[in-house]
Specification:
The protein is an alpha+beta fold. The chain folds into 2 domains: 21-36 and 309-393; 50-303, Beta-lactamase, CATH 3.40.710. It is 30% helix and 29% strand. It has a 6-stranded antiparallel sheet with strand order 1-14-15-19-18-17, with no helix packed on it. The chain has a 5-stranded antiparallel sheet with strand order 3-2-12-11-10, with helices on both faces. Helix 2 packs parallel to helix 5. The two termini are 25 Å apart.
């Protein structure tokens, strides 16, 4: 027979196990108006193609009807310039090493001049500095400048394309694939979001930033050549690159500085795949108009908003054993909000929280775009611990 002592020992052991078990995490029941966000109209996104903007202090927001890569035209030259400048840095106010134009380069130029490609006039034996070649690449968008730089860097265009794709992989540009250095081929594809991320990296290179904000350059043989980026006529616009082909339509990656809510803010955006009219210049004009509309809307509508205010109730903390207590924010969150922005908040409880007034029971994680701010969540009154009976019944 089982002795009474053994039964008591088992019961005592089970009771000890129940009392020693970790309590379930508390649950926050959020207040109806947890985030004090005024209603705002959405940004004027283009109806087709893809568009993304990233605003300092606000984050990235997109309207992509086609989330995968689409032809991007000469926007591809951003990566060509980025790889060249990463491997061959240009000090300020220097031309850099020389690139020699071969007879094959001149023959290619003369053959391609019959097409609608954007090209730089070249002559065998001519020499261009690295900076001049990059200016031809990024300002008048010369396709043969992309090939000159590719062969100078990698020996062959094919090997340079491998480097472009390797760099896209390192940067996490998952929708981007290069089949040439200029973007003339329809199989060179990307997304608006990928191009915004790439442009932000490229703009951190001083030589790139200097060139893409240039309205015109003077080059050997060609003389004065203008930038296709008409957004440069707008105050504060600092680049970066246009692109248009029949397959890609009109495309623009742009960057600007604006005074928003009392702070100087950088905006980087991309509009891809605008197919308007029968000519590439019409499609490019549509992309430029869409980018201009986005910039104007951001400047007019971005505001500084107190999303969470210290001391205000953010909800009720509910325990697994019954009681609930009002909790409040132990800090404030002030964000720059763009039109259509929708901050979100999630509650992350702390392990073994205190039960006294003012004890931190967790944190409120407030996210706006890619930005995140943590706010302590505090008790407004003492919270009763579970009873012995509840602890024992928990295991049944």
């Amino acid at each position: 027979m089982i002795s009474l002592g053994l039964i008591l020992l088992v019961v005592a052991g089970g009771t000890g196990v129940q009392l020693g078990r970790r309590l379930p995490a508390d649950t926050l029941m959020p207040a109806a108006q947890l985030l004090a966000v005024p209603g705002t109209a959405p940004l004027p996104w283009p109806r087709g193609g893809q568009a993304t903007v990233d605003v300092d202090g606000v984050g990235m927001t997109s309207a992509q009807q086609q989330p995968s890569g689409i032809p991007m035209g000469s926007v591809a030259k951003i990566m060509t310039a980025y790889v060249i400048l990463s491997r061959h840095p240009l000090p300020p106010r220097t031309g850099g090493p020389m690139l020699r134009v071969t007879a094959a380069d001149e023959a290619s130029y003369r053959h391609r001049a019959r097409s609608r490609e954007s090209l730089l006039p070249v002559r065998a034996g001519e020499q261009l500095t690295e900076r001049q070649a990059l200016e031809a690449l990024l300002v008048p968008s010369a396709n043969n400048a992309a090939d000159l730089l590719a062969e100078w860097d990698a020996g062959t265009i094919a090997q340079f394309v491998v480097r472009l794709n390797d760099e896209a992989g390192r940067l996490g540009l998952t929708a981007t694939r290069y089949s040439d250095a200029s973007g003339f081929r329809a199989s060179t594809v990307s997304s608006a979001t990928d191009q915004v991320r790439l442009a932000e990296r490229a703009l951190s290179i001083p030589a790139f930033a200097e060139i893409v904000k240039t309205r015109e350059v003077v080059l050997p043989l060609a003389g004065r050549m203008r930038n296709y980026n008409a957004l440069l006529d707008m105050p504060g616009v600092i680049g970066v690159k246009t692109g248009s082909t029949p397959a890609a339509g009109g495309n623009i990656v742009f960057a600007a500085t604006r005074r928003l809510a009392g702070s100087s803010v950088t905006i980087v955006g991309a509009v891809l795949g605008q197919h308007v009219g029968e000519r590439s210049l019409q499609a490019l004009a549509a992309a430029l108009d869409a980018a201009k509309g986005l910039l104007n809307a951001i400047e007019a509508e971005v505001r500084s908003v107190v999303v969470v205010r210290a001391g205000t109730a953010v909800g009720h903390l509910r325990t697994a054993w019954g009681p609930s207590v009002e909790v409040y924010a132990g800090g404030s969150v002030t964000e720059l909000l763009a039109p259509g922005a929708a901050p979100t908040a999630t509650f992350d409880p702390v392990g073994s929280p205190g039960r006294y007034v003012g004890a931190q029971v967790g944190r409120l994680i407030v996210r706006t775009g890619e930005n995140q701010v943590d706010v302590p969540v505090l008790l407004s009154q003492p919270l009763r611990n579970p009873s012995l009976g509840w602890r024992l019944r928990r295991g049944l």
